[in-house]
Design a protein that fits this description.
Layout: H1 7-12, H2 20-33, H3 49-58, E1 63-66, H4 73-79, E2 87-91, H5 106-115, E3 121-125, E4 130-134, H6 141-144, E5 146-148, H7 150-156, E6 166-168, E7 178-182, H8 189-193, H9 196-200, E8 203-206, E9 209-212, E10 218-223, H10 236-241, E11 244-247, H11 254-264, H12 269-274, E12 275-276, H13 279-294, H14 306-326, E13 332-333, H15 343-347, H16 354-359, H17 361-377, H18 384-390, H19 397-404, E14 409-412, H20 417-425, H21 430-437, H22 443-459, E15 464-468, E16 471-475, H23 477-488
Length: about 500
Amino acid sequence: MIHIKTLGQLKAAGYQSKTIKDELRDNLIEKLKKKESVFKGIIGYEDTVIPEIERAILSRHNMNLLGLRGQAKTRIARQMTELLDEYIPVVEHSDLNDDPLNPLSAFAKEKIKELGDLTPIAWLHRSQRYVEKLATPDVSVADLIGDVDPIKAANLKLSYADERVIHYGIIPRSNRCIFVINELPDLQARIQVALFNILQEGDIQIRGFKLRLALDIEFIFTANPEDYTNRGSIVTPLKDRIGSQILTHYPKQIALSKQITAQEAKLSDYQKEHISVNDLLATLVERVAFEARESEFVDSKSGVSARLTISAYENLVSTAERRMLLNEETSTVARVSDLMGIIPAVNGKIELVYEGEQEGAAIVAQNLVGKAIRNEFLEHFPDPAKLKKKKDPSPYQPVISWFGEGNTIDLMLLEDQKTYEETLNAIPGLSRLAATYFPSHTKADQLIAMEFILFALAEHSLIGKNQLERGTQFKDILGSMFNEADFFGSSDN
C-alpha cells in the first residue's frame, strides 16, 4: 500500500487503523502459529524470559525488563520492532506520527480540515518506530513530555494560549512507536511521576495546557534491581501502571554461555582461520564468569555481565595470535597459559566489594582463573582430596614424584610450539594421565590436556607453581614452601 499518497486513496483502499499493541499481538500470533522464532540470537531464555514476554504482548501490556547488566534487555527491546507491521501511514510532516484516520495533533487536524482527502500521506517503516532514551539524572519533564516554545510563538505570531506554541517532547513524538527508557531507576522520582497519566489515561500537561492525547505507544522499561548500590528506585505508583515486570537472568549452564560467547565474539577472518581454541579453553573462559558470580570478593548485586566472557574470549584468541606472530608461525592453538591474557578483560567487568578492593582487581581476576581451572579439573579427573581420604592409589603420583625429585619446568607465554611440546613431554606419566582421563582426538588437544593437568595440580596444592614475569614455573610443592619461608624469613641478628 505504500504507493498511496493521499488520505482519499487510503480510505478507498480500505485501510483499517490498528493500535501498536494490536500490531504486536497480531504479528506475534502469526509467528507462533508458524512456529517461527520471535527473538533471534537470544540464547538461554527459551523457557523463561521469552514466554513471559510473549504473554505480555498477547495481553497488550507495557513491560519492565528487570535484571542485572549484560542480560540482553536492550537487545530484546530492539528486536520487538520485528513484530510491527512493515509500514504504517502517517500525515506527512506531522510531529506525532499522526494516523491519517485518527489525527492527534493540532497540525494534523488542521491539515485534514484544510485539504480533506487530498491530505498528503507518508509511510513509516518499522525500523523508524523504535525510540530509546537512557535515563539520566539530568532528564527533565520538558525532554520527555514537552514545553512551550517562545521562539515558535514569536515566529508564528501566536498567543501563548494557542496549542501550536507547544514543542512536544520525545514521548509524544514517539506516538505509534516502541519507546524504551533504559535504566529507569536513574530517572528522578519527580520525573517518573510525569509518566503516570501517560501510561494510564493518555493525558499530558504542558505549562498549563491540559491535552487529551490518546498516545499510542508500547512502553518498555529496563532496570537493574532496585537495591543495586545507591541508585534510585522505581516509584511504586509507576510500577503499578506497568502491565508486566519480567525478570531476566544470566545463562544457567556453561554450554549456553559458550553459545552466547561464540555468537557475540568479534573475531577477524584471519583469527578464525589461524587460531584454534580447544573446547576445554572455551569452557574455562565461561567458568571464570560463573566463579565470579559466586565469589565473595565480587559484588553480586552489580552482576557479572556476559560481556566479560565475550571480551575474555577475544583476549584469549589475541594472546595466542600475538605468540604466533612473534614466533613467525602460520597457525597456533590457544593454551591454558594464555588464560593469563584474559586478566585485563576480567578486571574491568567485575565490581569488587571492600575485601576485593583490598586484594586488588588483578589478584582477584587471577584467583578466579585459578578457581575455574580447579573446579573444571574435577569434571574430568578424580578428586585428589577424595583419593587421599580413601587412601586410594593416586594416578597423579608419577607426576608429583618427578617434581619431588627436584625437577622444575618453565612454561613461557611466548614459547614456540616445538619447545612447548618438548617441555610437556619431558614429564614422565603426564601424557598417559591425560590420555586416560581426557581422551583427545588430536595431538594439539593432548598437549592442552597435559598443560591443564599441571595448572590444576598446582591449584589443588599437589605441585608448586610460581608466577614468572613471562610465564609460569612448576616445581615441587615442598620446595616451593621452603623457598617462600626463606624469602619471608628474618635474617640472623
